[in-house]
Amino acid sequence: MSQPIHIVTRFDGSGGTENHASALFQLLAGKRAVTLWADRPGGAASRYAATPIISYSGQRPEGGTLIILGTHLESGIWLEYARVRRLVVICNMFSLERIFSLLALLDRPSLPVAELVFVSQALKNAVGLPGIVCPPLIDLDRFHPSRRMPASAFRIGRHSRDDPAKHHPEDVSLYRMLAWRGHHVRIMGGECLRPFIADTPVIDLLKLDQEDAADFVANLDCFFYRTAPGKPEALGRAVMEALASGTPVVASPAGGYAEWIESGINGFIVHNQEEAFERIVEIAGNPEKARRLSENARASAQGICGAASLANYLDWLYA
Fold first, then answer.
1. Number of CB atoms found within 10 A of residue 26's CB
2. How far apart are the first and last CA of the chain?
3. Contact (Cβ atoms closer than 8 angstroms) between residue 136 and residue 306
4. How far apart are the C-alpha atoms of 53 and 11, rounded to whole Å?
5. What is the chain's percent helix, strand, coil content, to nearest 5?
6. Tens digit of pLDDT for each residue in 71-111?
7. Rounded CA gap, 259 and 120, in Å?
């Protein structure tokens, strides 16, 4: 009989951690006995059909493999009674303090030694501990170029959590310059930018999840991504969703997603405002280049998070 698998994380909203946990659960469900746990009641647990851990009632992970996803964990007596055979920690944030604090919390006689998984090679290098790098868990059937609809204007955009820290201070001026050229800018999770961007017909600031993410990224001609200085992304799931959708990416190098982008092949890595503007305008003005970038974007996503990479990772988790 196969051992059960427990996935525990913090459900605060609908960000990368929550989506990662949900995607991993969906992959494992039907193949193994797997439960998705919220480390505390409330939050967005019900949205993801996660079971909250309630130690006093015995509602807790027990036996098999315990996967802790993320570095936020509500410590509780349940850890002493988990009696798991294997402990896996998936590190998904560029916060060495949180990672090492979590590992210290889990260093106890009642638990096996934690095996580490990193969401990018950049994060693994920064932490400096042994472990494996997992592939991005992207549904390649859902994020697909077939969702693309034609449009009269060139469309640039991005989506992320609606938080100023997810946006670079120079993003607003870049969006204005692109709009002045007649390009259509669409930012989902961009309500926080509204005070700084005057209403204009070619800049749309949408609420987070106002549109289906797969439709949103497939109907962009260029996906632009950079975050606030000093706030690097360990992964950048939205970037891979764009690549899978055949949408060329223009992005800063400050994040794990930079590992996926080959400049001039499936997008561009840019280091300043001028480069960002020039590369986006270059794609907009060259339909043949845009087509090649789009085809290569999809192909790169298939290679990075396709069936073979996924199978190797799941085999490791099943061990």
1. 13
2. 13
3. no
4. 12
5. 40, 20, 40
6. 888 778 899 999 999 999 999 999 999 999 999 999 999 99
7. 8
Give the integer Cα–Cα distance in Å for 118 and 57. Answer: 33
CA distance 249 to 239: 7
230 Rama class: left (phi>0) / alpha (psi -120 to 50) / beta: left
Report the C-alpha gap between 115 and 131 in whole angstroms. Answer: 7
Q: Can you point out the beta strands (E) in 11-129?
A: 34-38, 51-52, 65-69, 86-91, 114-118
* Nearest C-alpha neighbor of 213 from the set 179, 239, 193, 185: 239
**CA–CA gap between residue 242 and residue 222 (Å, rounded):** 9
Query: 71: closest CA among 51, 89, 53?
Result: 89
Distance, CA of 27 to CA of 67 (rounded, Å): 14
Q: What tens digit of pLDDT does each residue of 115-148 get? A: 999 999 999 999 999 999 999 999 999 999 999 9
Alpha helices in 168-286 (DSSP H): 171-180, 213-218, 237-244, 273-284
Q: Which residues pair with 189 in a beta bridge?
A: none
Nearest to 66 by CA among 95, 91, 99, 90: 90
